[in-house]
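hey m, so remember when u said the tokens were messed up on ur end? i reran from scratch. heres the input so u can diff it against urs
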Amino acid sequence: MKFSENWLRSHVPTSASRDGLAATLTAIGLEVEDVTALGDGLAGVVVARIVEAAKHPEADRLQVCQVDAGNGSLLQIVCGAPNARPGLVAPLAMVGSSVGGIAIKAAKLRGVESNGMLCSARELGLDADASGLLELPADAPVGAQLAEYLGLPDASIEIKLTPNRADCFSVRGIAYDVAAALAGQVVPLDVAPVPAQGTAEMEIVLEAGERVPRFAGRVIEGVDAAAPTPVWMAERLRRAGVRPISFLVDVTQYVMLELGQPMHAFDRDALEGPVVVRPARADETVRLLDGREARLDGEFLVVADSRGGRAARAVALGGIMGGEDTKVTGATRAVFLEAAHWIPSAIIGRSRRLGLHTDAGHRFERGVDPELPRVAVEYATRLILDVAGGVPGPLTEVSLAGHLRSPATIGLRRARVARVLGIEIADAEVERILRALGMQVAASADGWQVTPPGRRFDIAIEEDLIEELARIHGYDRVPTTVPGGPARIAAPSETRLADADIRRQMVARDYLEAISFAFVEAALLRTWNSEAGTVALANPLSTELAVMRPHLLPGLVDALARNVSRQAGRVRLFELGRTFAAADPSQRAPGGPDPAPLETRRVAAVACGDARAEQWGGAARRIDFHDIKGDLESLAGAAGATLEFRPSNQPFGHPGRSADVYRTDREGGPERIGWLGQLHPRLQKALGLDVEVVGFELDLAPLQARALPRAEALSRYPAVRRDLAFVVGVDVAWAALADSARAAAGPVVRDLVLFDRYQGPGVESGCKSLAMGLILQDNTRTLTDQDADAVVERVVAELGRAHGARIRG
């Protein structure tokens, strides 16, 4: 929410400084993100009119202007702005003033005297627009101080709102919080009913039930649609981040920002009554104000008129955006103002389904006071009559009383306040705070009966009221007390590798930890060919965050790609996080809700670029499958895990350079715990990556499990080593050979190493030679040559039987 400081002060007068006001807003939970000062140091800048403009004799892009500054004589100003022209009213910095730190002096530009400077909005620090002079209304008072005319100095304040504070999407809503925090009073709003001067009105019919329980409207005839937006209104809109468009449109924006009630102005002559609020029909379309055509279904609500039959034509998308066919234009002579109450559940998610984000939808999704529609129409009517004239008809309001939200009275106990906050707040202070926030307060025997205003959708229980007291009274005034009593220290389990140990191990391997979103874009998962079994959000924040992630790798690779695009040549990232998969629908109980998604904690890592950081002691080479495999094995070694790698058919993995990872030292046999390898070249191309990316992703729980450490005496007897070279088929994996060799060798095998792999002359086509070292040792005696030979015979026989291996000659 962005607003003008002076606008806020007009609703809640306060002597607090700008910095003090910003600090107060942040302290009460309305976090100030930015404060932009506007119009400081504009002394000597006046409103001026260009009377004549002639081409500079020595420069094609300069003009020599004769300017009326209201002092009885014309000033000669050399100006290079493309919009400088006779009759234009613009700001003039007089000689002796200072603009943007530049002292304005009389000077000669290309031989022509210039006595001042005509200014753009950017030069004055009022806007980013530097395309030309700041154009002021033709009726602006020439000679007046610009700061006084534009209501300066001022500041544009932007606050960050949490979703529960929908009431603060308006200047007046923020004013109540400021009044409570600074012991002030909100200025009463003058919204006296505007008496009807004509008989024109539109019949309103509500056919959406509880979803739209109130709708108010008024016809105003004879308006001047070409009337310019008043300077004070246009400036407040600009400082709130809204560009003025035309007066009739600006009025609705102004009322929304000031009161919090979205509203819309229709061209009355483009409507045929009655106006009907109804659910959209299947495949019904409506052309919106931004020119796009929205295709709807029964979950949407529309405002329809009766052109072509009763409620036949949708003219607006309810609670979100008006329609193109009935918008106000410069030719409009009669308007139909409308303001309605759309309940949050009727609007939530609808904008995002259409790829829209509107101020109206943003507010209705979070909740708008159901009492505001009539107030907004009356307020907008008065503004229109004051500026554009016209003849107002009677205000028409249709309500479904049984469906209107009525705030419930909440009991607030004095003792409960003291218990929850740990401090006692004086009764008078409690009542002052609650009343300043717009609540009705009545004393009771043990505290108060409090009725919140209709705009406060976030207050429903006693604890909500206590939170309001803490927020306004001041969190800094709640004492910090250390809990008493004995503290129980839980010893970490030795059977589980801690998350911190995993993080330390990855950092030791030169990886940086990343944290990515738990939600991803559905299109990204399709690119990864991983959309099966995913969990889609019913109400996503955006289309980019619409699906719960089934893997950590897509988010990590996206982070890697961002770094690579910013000239990072060597990137190594890891993450510990949760992934989500849809539960089996058959597990749902009859008549019960769908089972919750399955959550799995995982660890993943990705890397690209050089295998080692740049250094002089060795040649640079790119990271490959074996490097990332070594990183993973070092991580598994911290848990004492033994891993096995088998060829993988994951669609996102490079064929021949990726593997499924199994943990083999678990009871019950090998257990698949994840994937390791290089991304498929097609995937890398689709993701816009021109570097090879390797990575892994593993389930965390099976990786973290480890056996209790057991002390064993070192053998007093020497080890025996036998080196064997086998010829096997190229498709025989080393892991399978090693498992068979260990099983055949029995308990005397202490280690088994692969020290050579060969293909070429001397080995037939389709085969490879693998040379292994068998390291044998016994704890009770020295092994003889006969013992070692017997082990070798068993190994050779088993490998020949199981894998067709033969000793290389």
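this time it looks ok to me. The domain at 45-152 is CATH 2.40.50.140 (OB fold (Dihydrolipoamide Acetyltransferase, E2P)). if urs says something different then somethings off w ur setup not the seq
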